[in-house]
């Protein structure tokens, strides 16, 4: 009798994978990549070592999955923020910055994975990290090219990377502060958006 994988079985497998991935994400965000071990992830997930290795090859593999998943969630948050903004490219850019910063501020463990922990680990993880950052820069660059006739002269590629870098650095600095010393996330998001819009010469009416 042939063994058949049913939709329900696939759903259960994916659910178990999500539990392990969520546990790993929490630990990487709280403890850091180097301090987190596979046994710690297994214990946090309430599963077995065999289960872990069924879904992931090693610690780097689960970190790569956590990083990729985070990139997808950030993109979804940015797209949602843009969808709720008025139909105006500059206001879309403002909404994207605020949506991005608010997502990271509201998910500090995931933010730490992307901004702090993922840097300099391995070529594979660095490539995933750079791909996430590059996707954000490309979105800004495309918007800047679209808005070029309405803005002072600028180099879209360089400006887009400066724009993205300001967002990452602001969140990095925010994360480094003790929780009781942090400016409210919404205020940080609005401040970064204002800074970036001023930097490209946007109309003061939008600030």
Distance between the termini: 67 Å
The total domain count is: 2
* Oligomeric state of the chains present here: single chain
User: Which sequence of SSEs, written as H and E, runs from N to C?
Assistant: HHHHHHHHH
Morphology = elongated
* Biggest sheet layout: none
* CATH architecture descriptor of the largest domain: Orthogonal Bundle
What is the CATH fold-level name of the largest domain? Tetracycline Repressor, domain 2
| Strand runs, count | 0
Low-confidence stretches: none
The proportion of strand residues reads under 5%
Record the SSE blueprint:
Layout: H1 7-31, H2 38-45, H3 49-55, H4 59-83, H5 89-106, H6 108-117, H7 123-147, H8 156-176, H9 185-199
Helix pairs in contact: 1-2, 1-4, 1-6, 4-5, 4-7, 5-6, 5-8, 5-9, 6-8, 7-8, 8-9
Task: Tell me what you see in this structure.
The protein has 207 residues and is mainly α. It has two domains: 8-56, Orthogonal Bundle (Arc Repressor Mutant, subunit A); 58-206, Orthogonal Bundle (Tetracycline Repressor, domain 2), CATH 1.10.357.10. Helix content is 74%, strand content 0%. The chain contains nine helices and no strands. The chain has helices spanning 7-31, 38-45, 49-55, 59-83, 89-106, 108-117, 123-147, 156-176, 185-199. Helix 4 runs parallel beside helix 7. The longest helix is centred in the first third of the chain and has 25 residues, at 7-31. The protein is elongated. The termini are far apart. The mean pLDDT is 89.
